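Lab notebook, bench 4. The sequencing result for the construct came back, and we need a structural model before the next group meeting so we can plan mutations. Quick request posted to the team channel:

Model the 3D structure of this chain.
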Amino acid sequence: MSSWKDEILNLLNQGKGFEVDYENGKVKIQEAKGISKGAVSLKEVKGVRKSKVKPPSAKLKDLIIELASKLIDANKKFKVTLGQGDFTLRFDLDHYIRVDSKSSSVIGFNSLSEEPINLIADILEDHGEVKILKPLK
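Done. Here's the predicted structure in token form:
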């Protein structure tokens, strides 16, 4: 098994998302970082509840590895964040795929033939229903 697959499986087993980047032609896997839009004081965060995300099911884990494999082969950057029983595969802020145990929603693309969706469309269709939510104009 490739070292990047081991790194991804390790993060998924901990219930953590990951980012895929490339450095000097090599795959670089790291824990997903959130987006900070400004400074937040400890007092403001005090009442916020943070729930622990469970690792994805074996079926979703296999799907994540299969999707990641195709995208890494094509040298595409992406991020996977985990939810409760689902995950989001994000290419940028406006282009991502939300996948649950039965279906997936493709957001920000006009069709399944657009890059990089065309690389993984067959895998998504095999997984279940694929909804395309086109960008607003």
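The chain has a mean pLDDT of 87.
Will bring this to the meeting.
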